[in-house]
Amino acid sequence: MLGRMADPKTVPTDASVAAFLAAVPDERRRADAVALCELMEAATGAAPRMWGEAIVGFGQYRYRYATGREGVWPAVGFSPRKTALTVYVAEGFEAHADAVARIGPVTTGRACLYVKRLAAVDADALAGLVGDAFRQVDGKLITS
Predict the structure, then answer these.
(1) pLDDT, tens digit, 9 for 90 and up, residues 74-92
(2) DSSP H helical segments within 9-122, as ranges?
């Protein structure tokens, strides 16, 4: 007998983005998170929304895997983690290699960009990457 798949924990909520950002414990990380939120809102034209307890997302897309599992995820988003601001870009960074190189001192994972200090990166290049990535997936169904 097949069991029911667990519901995803990271879903859009009505929690306050401003309250979440105001509660970031480290003062510098909090200031960077507020500035990044403003940058991402301007780059996407979308209002920020909390996803789960720790992700600020902009827009959304639907995904469907070959297994039939599906759900929604922010088109782009971020979380002010303890060691870095983590920027989520659903489609990954292959299509954005030039922009990533221009941003400055960051590291990347499959779909995550890690920023230690916002002041150390090129804000225009980051905004360009965020805006492009947002437009690629917002409102779309992505299948794999």
Answers:
(1) 999 999 999 999 999 988 8
(2) 17-22, 27-44, 97-103
Strands (E), 1-144: 48-51, 55-58, 61-64, 70-73, 76-80, 85-89, 106-108, 112-115, 141-143
pLDDT tens by residue, 87-128 = 999 888 888 888 999 999 999 998 999 999 999 999 999 999
The partner residues of 143 in beta bridges, in order of sequence, read 64
Residue at 141: amino acid letter: L
Q: Is the pLDDT of residue 6 over 70?
A: no
Closest CA to 63 of 138, 143, 7: 143
- Give yes or no for residue 5 having a pLDDT over 80: no
> Rounded distance, CA 102 to CA 121, Å?
8
Q: Counting beta carbons within 10 angstroms of the beta carbon of residue 32, is it exposed (0 to 12), middle (13 to 18) or buried (19 or more)?
A: buried
CATH of region 17-143: 3.90.1150
The single residue listed with the structure tokens 């759900």 is 71
Residue boundaries of the structural domains of the chain: 17-143
Q: Point out which residues pair with 57 in neighbouring strands.
A: 49, 77
